[in-house]
Amino acid sequence: MSTITHKEELPPGLPFLGNSMLFLGLSILALSFIGTEWLPFQMPRSWYSSPSIWKLLALGLSGAGIVILNRVSRMEMKKQQRQPEIVTQADWIPEEPGRRFETLTVYTKQDCPLCDEAVDILEDYAAYLPEWELIDIYSDPALVEKFGTCVPVVLIDGKIRFRGRINEVLLRRLIVASPVTKAIRQKCGCNKQGCGCQSQKSPAESSGCGGQCRCA
């Protein structure tokens, strides 16, 4: 079991690396067919003694570049698809801020785009949710049999609320309809949006947030 705290981000320089590898691989491949007599410099001796090695290198570089660029493209598309939802969520605030529920569990598996999407959505509403656990269904054969065809599965306080995909409209309704947990109702005076630790009339009335303040 593990807890996810950050969204997947595009590593800096990854697009440049992918383009460079693809360009270099295609260039070597092109030179192997058209020859190098016109170049103003001499190729390494292995170019002439072991041309097949250079062709394999070219194919490897080209393939790696394509894989990297494909990953970059998928991550950028995912970001663009999620952006409108994030903007909408940023304008949505429940009447009573603060975290709801006691437990939140997400059953997931490796290489699952819908699972990644579910984590993204949960992170958008993290100010109103408890810290969640991610459980890989392949860690237990019984979980594979139970959830193998419908991950992600989201349990809130032990009850299955979502299968396959999180519906943000329903998630918002659950948040609005659920009371803020007792620990979060305690006041720390930080008055940060979404924290639930609202300020008091006087310092003497503040009872602290019991270490639950998300703005610390």
From TrEMBL:
<dbReference type="Pfam" id="PF05768">
    <property type="entry name" value="Glrx-like"/>
</dbReference>
<dbReference type="InterPro" id="IPR008554">
    <property type="entry name" value="Glutaredoxin-like"/>
</dbReference>
<keyword id="KW-1133">Transmembrane helix</keyword>
<protein>
    <recommendedName>
        <fullName>Glutaredoxin</fullName>
    </recommendedName>
</protein>
<dbReference type="InterPro" id="IPR036249">
    <property type="entry name" value="Thioredoxin-like_sf"/>
</dbReference>
<feature type="transmembrane region" description="Helical">
    <location>
        <begin position="21"/>
        <end position="41"/>
    </location>
</feature>
<keyword id="KW-0812">Transmembrane</keyword>
<feature type="transmembrane region" description="Helical">
    <location>
        <begin position="53"/>
        <end position="72"/>
    </location>
</feature>
<keyword id="KW-0472">Membrane</keyword>
